[in-house]
Amino acid sequence: MNFWENPIGFIGEAIADLMRSLHIGPEVINFVITLLSVVVVASFGLLLVIFLIWLERKVAARFQDRIGPNRAGPYGLLQTFADMVKLITKEDSIPEKADKLSFNIAPILSVVAVLLIWAVVPFAPAWIGTDLNVGVLYIAAVGSFGILSILMAGWSSNNKYALLGAFRAVAQLISYEVPMLITLLVPVLLARSMGMNDMVRDQSTWFIVLAPLAGIIFLVSSIAEIGRTPFDLIEAESEIVAGYHTEYTGMKFGLFFAAEFLHAFTVGVLFALLFLGGWRGPGAEQYQLLGVFYLMAKASIGYFIVMWVRSTLPRIRIDHMLALNWKFLTPASLAILIITAILEKAYGETSARIPALLIGNLAVVLVSWLVLRAASRKTKRERVTFKKRPVAKPA
Amino acid sequence: MQPIQLVFLFAAALILWAAFMMVTRSNLVHAALFLIVALFGVAVFFVLLEAGFLAVLQVLVYIGAIAILMIFAVMLTRGDVIEEEIVNRGFGWALMLAALFCFGLIILVGQWPGVNEAAPRIVESRDLIQELGVQMFAPEGYVLPVEVASVLLLGAIIGALVVARPQKKEK
Asked: Is A89 in CB contact (< 8 Å) with chain B?
């Protein structure tokens, strides 16, 4: 095995050889290697967060016509390290009537829930934690730990704002899971597999070309799943202080913070895997590191859109948030799923696959646009601008 | 001892401990959280049996949906869920029933001839999931029970919608 073609596999082989020379059983070697790869993937995710926080602050600053962090280190690169030291040295306060155990477990669970997704991410053709045959379903399943952590944090804090945040979170996250899971089924249909690596291998034409609408709906409902602006009702600071993490201080708050940033990037990674062809690119099959580079570059596209939306749009009202989900995203995603299934069955093996699916998507866009226009004409909106209002005048 | 056996023992101990904690807690939210730990332990069992699909469904359905709904219901319906005393003490009956079921299961499983044989290794799990799908939806398979169950669920959803629908205002 050549080092440059597969450095991690090369090092893994070297460690296995070393243990074999020490007469350790193959079962134990397998276990140790698995354990080591878990540590590598998890550490990669957690180290990435440090960079992501700096990146997001820098990008958000540019959107707001500022410079952003620029004091600690070149281009402010060391800013996050300074923040980490600050968070770790801060006082760790637990409310007197809090539920201690759940209060302390919740932040850890929120990070774990995101890191668990990385177990099925194929970074490169040969680099995947575990190539589950139900990878997509697994992603949906571990997402529920995130909801659980928010519920635990909100309830155990024994604070009404935290509890309100947790209630909002459950209403929002469980609702937006519906269109997200339905649109996840579209790539599954197209690839005829639920395994993540199979899905990437099948994308000789990227799925964003075959199912653009499913990609957009997936991204929108994923932003809601992270709980970022415009869907940040979970921690809306102008309404409920800081939502579910109101009572958290120091590094425990830092863990929620890190989980959110990592989740945002993970959404970019999933978008890249499901719709932008994952690690596919020239030379990726041979040189694994190139595959990682392609995946990260593609993931940055999704992540950039998430940051862009975050720094552009204001917060959406809670009834609008639920209406958008149940009255628009869910029916639209169901329509796309049915249309994709029919067209894929009819034209899946022929050369008419791409145009047929594109026309199907276009039809859904057209119908939903017509429906939305009809609905917007029906609803009466109060015009506030033309109303006569009392104005203070000089006497 | 192989590492996989250690994992099995750890998961088994976790399930037993969590189940015991669940039935002895007086705080309902704590009981629900321990139930989640126990259900997660069962998911680990499924993974050890190479039934990845069932493991994922266990997490998705029992932890993701049922347990969270339970916690939500408990948190919403009772203002003060922290009670000093356990309200209904039915330990004796529950213990008897549980023991009866446990011994019944042990006897039933003991009669099965394959109980002492090593499990056959599953070669290609990728085909298994396709096989499962074909079995569930093929006309000669289990399509009728699946469809009946889905109609039942649809009925439940419509029923919930009718119940939750706001009553029209009286004029």
From this structure: no
